[in-house]
Write a structure and sequence with these properties.
Elements (H helix, E strand, L loop, with lengths): L2 H31 L16 H5 L31 H6 L13 E6 L6 E3 L5 E4 L6 E2 L10 E6 L2 E6 L6 E3 L2 E2 L4 E2 L6 E3 L2 E6 L1
Parallel strand pairs: 3-4
Antiparallel strand pairs: 1-2, 1-11, 3-5, 5-6, 6-9, 7-8, 7-10, 10-11
Length: 197
Amino acid sequence: MSELTYLLLRFGFLLVLWAFIFGVVYALRSDLFGSRVRRTPGEQGNPPFVASAVTPPVAPPVAPPVAPPVMPPVAPASPPPGGGSSFTQLISPSRGTGGTDAPTRLVITSGPKEGLEIELSKEPLTIGRSSASGLVIRDDYTSTHHARLMLWSGEWVIQDLDSTNGTFLDGKRVSLPTPIPLNTPVRIGTTSFELRR
C-alpha cells in the first residue's frame, strides 16, 4: 500500500470519528436543552416570547357550580334470614364472610426470617424490599414492591406487582390475583410462607 493511500485512509477515519463525536454531542445537547424554536418568515425581527408577553393568556370560561342532586331517603331492606346485611357485603367485599375457616396468620416456613409469624388483619399486606412494606424481605430476588396479600370475599388473595422474578403459589407462577388455600406454600425470592389458622 502506498504512503499516499495510507495517509488518505487515516484522514478518512479521522473525519468519520469526528462526525460521530459531533453527532453524539448534538444528540446530548438536544436531550438536555431541547430543540431550537424555528421562526416563520413573518416573525424574523421579534423573539418568540414577545407575543406572549404582550398578549395575556385568556382564562377558559368557568361554569357556574351545580348543586348535587338530592336523593330521597330509602327505607333499609330487611336483613336476610342468615342475619347479616347483604348490602354491607356488596359494598365491602374485602370484609368477606368472616368465617372461622379463614386464615388468621402468615407463617414464614423458609428463608432468612423462618419461623416468623404475622397476624393478618383485614387490611392488605404488601411484601417487598421496601421498608414501607408490611413484610420486608431483603434478598437479591425480591423487588421493592413485589406482591400484595389482600382479603377478597372472605378469601386471601396473592397479587404479583409486576415483580422481576415472580411470585409462586405451590410452585406455579402467579400472573393474576389468585386465592391462597390454607397451608399452601407461597414463594417470593428465597422466602416461602403459608397461611394458617
